[in-house]
C-alpha cells in the first residue's frame, strides 16, 4: 500500500513535467524557442544528458519490497546492486586492493569498490536521485517565494518594496554557508531539511530579477491599458506580467539548478549535507578525502563522483545558455 | 562634378528568413552646398543607404554587393577599412536619430568632441580644446557643457553636441539620419535652421534621411523618394511638391492631415511595404497603387523620365506601356474613399447642435506634484508637473491637448483615467466627480473611459492573443455571455476597426504597427466607452498609416458618439482633427480655444512659436 503511494509521486512529477512542456510548446514563444534549440546540436546533447540523469533518478524513485520484512528496493537497486566485497578493489580487478594478502572478489566491478566493498557504479547512480531532488525541490521552494515577493515588491512599490528589499538585503548580507549551517543545526540533517535550508538561502537572486523586471513591465503601456479596463491587480500580475517574466525565470532556474547541485556536494563534503546512508556525490567525495592520501592512491571513488557531478552541471549550464539564446535571440549579437 | 555620386548601390543582409536586399540599385548625386533628402516609409532602406555610403553596414551579415560611391572622384567602395577610416568623421560625418544613445555616457562632451579631432590629427591639445569650444558655441551649447556628461543635457542639447562633434572637422559631406525625429517641434526647428546655416557657411553637402515630408519641404533642395529599396522618384523639392509624379509620392502627400482636409477622409495607402527578403519581381508598388494596370504586375518599371530632371520609376510615364493614358501628365490623386462634402457638413452641423449640451468631461483646477527627491532623512521635494489645469469637452467632440514633451499633457490624460492620483483638483464625468468614486462605482467608471497609447508595440501584451485580450476586457465587465456571444462581439469589434476575424488567433508580433494600433482601439472600444483619451495615437506610425488610423478614429467618433481627448505634439493632426485646442506649457494651459481661431490668431507667444516651428508642406 505504502509502496504504491510513494511510487505515485515520481510518476506524477514526470507527468506534470511533460504536460507543462507540451502545453508551453503550443505557445508561439516556446515553439519558436524550441525550433531554434533544435538547430543547436550542443543544446540537444546537453538535453539528452540531463534526460539520462533524470531517467536514472526516476528509476531510483520507483521502489517496492519483495516481502513485508525486507527493505524496499528501487529499480536501480535491483539492476545495479552487487553483493558487497570485503574492502577496496580497483576497477575491473579480481582481487581486493591494498591488503597484504589480496582476497579474491566475488565478481569484477567496472569502477571498482569503495572501503565497505560497495560497487562504485552503483553508488554513483544512487547519487543522481539525491542531486536531482536537491536541485528540483529547492527550486520548487525558492522560485515561488522569489516570484511572489519580487513581483509584489516591483508592482506595488513603496512600503511593500521597502519590506521585501530590506528582507533580502539582510538575508544576503549574512554569509550563505553560515546561514546554512545554522539552519541545518536547527532543522537537523536530511534531504527535506537540506532542500528547505537551500531554498531559503537561494531565492534572493531570482527575487531581485523578478522585482526589476516587474518594475519595468509595470510602467509598460499594456499594463496601464489593463488597469484602464478595470482589471484587478491580481489578474494583472498573474495574466499579464507573469507570462512576460517566464522566459527569464526559466533561464535563471535552469542555471540555478547546477549551482544547487554543487552546493549539495559542498555541504555533504562539509558533512552538513544529506545523511551518511543516502547515496550522494558529496558524501562520496567526502569519503575519498582520506583515500587520496593513501599510497597507492585510490582514485576511482573520487573520479566517478566528480565526473558525474561535472557532467550534470556542465549539461545544465550549456542547456541554460542555449535556452537563453533561443528565447532571446538579441543576446546572440 | 558632383561631390558625391552614388551609382547602382546594392546592399544585402543575411537574415534568418533569407537574403534581405534593403538597398537594391540606388543611384543619386549630391552637389557641394546642396541638401538631398531621402524620404519614404520605414522599411524602405533609407538608413541602410546612408550606412552603406560609409561602409558601416552591420557586419558580418551585411554586405555591399555592387555599385560605386564616388566621393571627390574616388570610389569609396574600393577602399579598405583602413583607407576609409580617415574619411569617416573628417570628410564625411554622420549624425544619428537617437541623441540619447549616440553619445558615450562615460565620457564628457568635451572629451568626445576633442577625440574626434585627435583621431584625425586635425588638431590637438589647446588648439583642439579651443576648436571644441568654438563648435559648441556655434551650435548654441554653453561652454560649461564641455565638462558635462551626456545625461546631464537635454535631448535637444545632446543632438546639438552630436552636430558640433560631426562638424568640428569641417566635413564636406554630412549624413543626417532622422536627426530631429526624437525631438520636439521647436527644438527640431532650431536644429534644422542650425544645419542650414552651417551649410551656408561651410558649403558642405547634406544628405538628410527622414520620413517627415514637412521637414523635407522646409530644408531640402532635392528630394529622392525611396520605396522598397529603390528610388522611385527624384526631383527638386519645389518640383516634387508641386507636381508629384509617382503614385507613391502622391499618396504620401495626399495622406498628410491638414485643415483643408478637415471633415473628409484622408487618402490612405493600403497595405504595407513588402519584406526586403522578397521584393516583388515586377513593380514593387503595384499592390498598393491606385493607378495600376495590367502591365504593372508583369514588368518591372524602368526609370522613365518625363523630363530629365524629374525621373519617376513608373509605367505611367513609360510610352512603351502607357499608350492610352496621357503620359507625363501629373495624376491628380484625390482621397481614395472620398468623404463627400455634405458628409462633413452634416457632421459639423450635428456638432454645433450639441454644443449647447452639458460637457461630458470637465476638469477643474487639476494639479499634480511628483516627488523629486525624498528619503527617510531628507524632506521630499516636489515638482509641479500639472498646475491648475481647467477644461471641458462637450459630448461627441475632440479636444486636443498640445505641447512639448515634459509639458504634462500625458499626466493629465492618466489622471483623468484615474491611473494616477491627482494632487489637487477635480475631474467630472457626466457631472459626477471621478475621484470621489470608490468600489463598484469606480469599476463602472472604467467602462466609460478608455485610453489608446502611442506605442502599439508596448501597449499590447506580447504573450496574449487578440482573442484573449478582447475576451478579458469583455469578461471583466461581464459584457455578453461567456462563449459564443463574446466570440461574436470580439469578431464584430475587429471588423469595426477594419481587421478580419482571423486576427483573433494571432499574437501582437504578427501584426504591423498600424494593425496593432487598430487592435488597441478595438480593445478600448470593447467596453463601449463614452470617452477615449488618445495619447499620441499616431506618433509612432508612418504618415500613410497615420491617415488610416485618423480616418478610423473619425468614423468611430461619428458612429459611436465618442468624445476624444487627443494628446499630441503633431499640430498638423490637430488642425485636421480637433474641434478645440488647449496648449500646455510647463504644466499650465497657456491658451485654450476653438481650433480654427487658435490656429489663425494665436494670442500667446508660446503658441505662435509652436505654430511657426511646425514644418509644413507647401504644395
Write a compact overview of the structure shown.
The complex is a heterodimer of chains A (333) and B (619). Chain A has 333 residues and is mainly α.
CATH topology of chain A: MetI-like fold
β-strand number of chain A: 2
The average pLDDT value of chain B, as a whole number, equals: 83
Low-confidence stretches of chain A: none
Q: Rg of chain A from C-alpha positions?
A: 23 Å
The CATH homology group name of chain A: MetI-like
**Strand proportion of chain A:** under 5%
Folded structure, characterized:
The complex is a heterodimer of chains A (333) and B (619). Chain A is mainly α. Chain A has a single domain, classed as MetI-like (MetI-like fold). Chain A is built from 13 helices and two strands, in the order αααββαααααααααα. In chain A, helix 3 (41-61) packs across helix 13 (300-327) and helix 11 packs parallel to helix 12 (281-291). The termini of chain A are far apart. The model of chain A has no long low-confidence stretch (mean pLDDT 84). Chain B has 619 residues and is of the alpha/beta class. Chain B has two domains: 1-91 and 175-180 and 204-339, Rossmann fold; 349-613, Rossmann fold, CATH 3.40.50. Helix content of chain B is 32%, strand content 23%. Chain B has helices at residues 46-53, 81-84, 109-118, 125-138, 155-167, 185-202, 213-219, 237-242, 247-254, 341-354, 409-416, 439-448, 466-476, 484-496, 513-525, 543-560, 571-577, 595-600, 605-613; strands at 4-15, 18-30, 35-39, 62-71, 74-75, 92-95, 173-177, 205-210, 222-227, 230-236, 359-373, 381-394, 398-402, 424-429, 432-433, 449-452, 531-535, 563-568, 580-585, 588-594. In chain B, strands 6-7-8-3-9-10 form a six-stranded mixed β-sheet, with helices on both faces. The longest helix of chain B is centred in the N-terminal third of the chain and has 18 residues, at 185-202. The two termini of chain B are 31 Å apart. The interface between A and B is medium-sized, with 20 and 29 residues.
